[in-house]
Amino acid sequence: MRRRELARMIDHTLLKPTATETQIEALCSEAAKHGFYSVCVNPSWLENCLTQLSDSDVKVCTVIGFPLGANDTLSKAAEARIAIEKGADELDMVMNVGQLLDGNHDYVQEDILAVVGAANGLPVKVIIEICYLSDEQIVEACEIAKNAGASFVKTSTGFGPSGATEEAVWFMRNTVGKNMGVKASGGIRDYATAIRMIEAGANRLGTSASVEIIMGAPE
User: Fold this and answer.
1) In whole angstroms, what is the distance from residue 28 CA to residue 52 CA?
2) Is 28:59 a contact under the CB 8 Å cutoff?
3) Distance (Å) of CA 37 to CA 3, 114, 177
4) How far apart are CA 194 and CA 123, in angstroms?
5) Residue closest to 23 by CA, chosen among 39, 7, 9
6) Peptide linkage before 43 cis (omega within 30 of 0)
7) C-alpha to C-alpha distance for 30 and 39, rounded to whole angstroms
8) Angle in degrees, 0-180, between the axes of helices 191-200 and 166-176, rounded to the nearest 10
């Protein structure tokens, strides 16, 4: 895959709690230089990124209920509304994993619906945190997110014990079909891994190693 084509599939990500303004500025500069699809940052950095990227076509994504997904639904919806009001282009929300594991599918769906509603038509990616789920539960999580009107399902926060796998991405793509997005995130650090995730069915990648990945791609 050509470098430019791959860059347009990448959310250039910095979600560490230790991120500084200087690092966020570098993230945005790299995204603009290499043509990444978006930057993905914690909500406190949203306005910084919007200002720095205002003259580019790089979108700005922020996270909701991150990284645990255990916030109550009202809090998640409020986070989403504030982010949209500030100018966010996309939202990556964390599913309530504990409620899914308990079989409370209605709760999980209503939780996602609240954020989708607050997003007012902008893309919402639901992080299902695959490291805690069986194959059957991955399918259930994807079906719930699809029914709730999410735009994408996403593998991982990057804060769990493991990240994206080709097998999970394949399950996710085969569950949601061709008209919904699948984002692979967590542990994608080189070109070969990125291509394997795309071949398994991902059409968006979340990574902090974006520059290293595209430098491995053909020009």
Assistant:
1) 7
2) no
3) 13, 26, 22
4) 22
5) 39
6) no
7) 10
8) 30
pLDDT in tens, 60-78: 999 999 999 999 999 999 9
Which residue from 51, 56, 27 is spatially nearest to 40, judged by alpha carbons? 27
pLDDT at residue 219 is higher than 80: no
Q: What is the mean pLDDT of residues 24-50?
A: 98
Q: Specify the fold of 3-215.
A: TIM Barrel (3.20.20)
Residues 81, 152, 141: CA angle, nearest 5 degrees? 100
What does the domain layout of the chain look like in residue ranges?
3-215
The total of other beta-carbon atoms located within 10 Å of residue 125's CB is 27
What is the set of active-site residues? Answer: 92, 154, 183
Tell me what percent of the residues of the chain surpass a pLDDT of 90: 99
What is the pLDDT at residue 177? 98
Q: What is the rounded average pLDDT of the residues 113-129? A: 98
Q: How many residues does the chain have?
A: 219
Q: Which amino acid is at 118?
A: A
Cα(148)–Cα(163) distance, integer angstroms: 24
Task: Assess contact for 167 and 197: CB atoms under 8 A.
Answer: no
The overall pTM is greater than 0.85:
yes
Please list the residues that pair with 172 across neighbouring strands: none
CA dist., res. 22 & res. 46, Å (int): 14
Q: Phi and psi dihedrals of 83, rounded to 5?
A: -60, -40
Mean pLDDT score, 40-59: 98
Q: How far is residue 194's CA from residue 137's CA, in Å, rounded to a whole number?
A: 24
- Residue 170, judged by CB atoms within 10 A of its CB (0-12, 13-18, 19+), counts as middle
